[in-house]
Each structure stands twice: as structure tokens, then as C-alpha cells.
Write a structure and sequence with these properties.
The protein is of the alpha+beta class. Helices cover 33% and strands 25% of the residues.
Length: 208
């Protein structure tokens, strides 16, 4: 692989980034598909304009034979629906995920001299329900760190700005139980991890 752009997820247009996120989140729900309301919740798109953008993207993916859109039986007129990948969509989502893993491998190879990842336990003895990662490279001018978080049992991880605005999502097919180490191999796509924190609190809220 050629040297990747370290902000490869930022180089995409907003539309292309959203397409990639939809494909990956559909990949993460292979048996039941991902419901439209859950997709909006995961992507924090619950106001009118962001919903319209999401609808435009999903129908664009359908026209390109990458996504199936199935209406709910009790509301065929355009209410809640479910998204599943076509065979072409599954192949493309797999390529996107492999690109993310390749970026992560590049980060690890090129930055072996960085200090070891700091491990922090903020569970208060209650047990870890979520993992949060902070990155060496994603730092604002004020010194604040962007962070990623993963809730155990979920098959996606989200990247947030220091102000807790959603920046990106990566997801994977639930083929096996994921540990914080294996999820970090995907998280590494966003940059070298400086700190990993175990928490009991769910951030931002428990997902439905």
C-alpha cells in the first residue's frame, strides 16, 4: 500500500464519507439489517437536514446496487425501513474496512518510537462497559484530544471531536467476539493511540 493520508477519513467529501459509514454499519448488521431509526441514532442525524442527507445517500447507494431498502410491513408508504447490503455492497464495505486496517498498520509501523499506550481504569471496580481511545495526532490548537469510543457488544466504533461532535464511524461484520485489543486494530486507522481508558459509563448514551 502507498503511504496513506493520515486524515484519509477527512479527505472524503461529506457525501462520500456518509456513504462509507452507511455501508459499514449495514455490514455490522448482516442478519437483520440496520433499521433507519437506529442508523440515525448511531450517526447522530436526528434533525431534519441531516436526515434528508442520509435519505439521499441511502437511495444513491440503492440506485448503484450497493444497498437494499426494505419498508416495514406496517408502513409501506415511506416510514421506518431497514437497510441491507447487496453482494456488491458487501464487497465494497470489506474493501473499505481493509483500507482502514491498512492505515492502522502503517501508523503502527511508522511510529514505533512513541511512548507505550497509557492504560487507565476509570470503572471504579464496576467492570468495563466502554473503551475510550485518545490519539497522539488528533490534537486541537488548545491541546484537546479527539477520542474514539466503543461499547462492548457493539460492532462499530465512533470518533468524536474534543467537543463531542461525531467525526467518523468504523464498523465490522460480527464474526467473532471483539476485545479492546482487536477493536484497537481498527481504531488505529485514525492515528496512533496515546491513551486507552476503561469506563463503566456509557457514552454518549446506551444505544437502543
Amino acid at each position: 500500500m502507498n503511504e496513506p493520508s493520515f486524515d484519509w477519513f477527512e479527505d472524503l467529501t461529506p457525501e462520500r464519507k456518509l456513504e462509507r459509514q452507511v455501508l459499514l454499519l449495514a455490514l455490522a448488521h448482516p442478519w437483520t439489517g440496520v433499521r433507519s431509526d437506529r442508523l440515525r441514532t448511531i450517526l447522530h442525524r436526528e434533525t431534519t437536514n441531516p436526515i434528508a442527507e442520509l435519505v439521499d445517500v441511502t437511495w444513491s447507494l440503492k440506485r448503484r446496487d450497493l444497498l437494499n431498502i426494505v419498508s416495514e410491513p406496517d408502513d409501506p408508504a415511506g416510514g421506518p425501513c431497514t437497510y441491507t447490503l447487496t453482494l456488491a455492497g458487501i464487497e465494497l464495505a470489506g474493501e473499505i474496512l481493509e483500507e482502514a486496517r491498512a492505515c492502522g498498520r502503517y501508523w503502527r509501523q511508522q511510529h514505533r518510537g512513541l511512548p507505550p499506550t497509557e492504560e487507565v481504569d476509570n470503572t471504579g471496580g464496576k467492570g468495563g462497559r466502554t473503551i475510550t481511545w485518545h490519539f497522539h495526532n488528533l490534537v486541537t490548537d488548545s491541546g484537546s484530544l479527539s477520542f474514539a469510543n466503543w461499547t462492548r457488544g457493539e460492532h462499530f466504533v465512533r470518533l468524536w471531536s474534543p467537543e463531542a461532535a461525531l467525526r467518523d464511524v468504523l464498523a465490522w461484520k460480527p464474526q467473532r467476539l471483539m476485545s479492546s485489543d482487536s477493536v484497537q486494530e481498527i481504531v488505529d486507522a485514525w492515528g496512533p493511540v496515546g491513551r486507552r481508558t476503561r469506563q463503566y459509563r456509557i457514552f454518549p448514551t446506551a444505544e437502543a
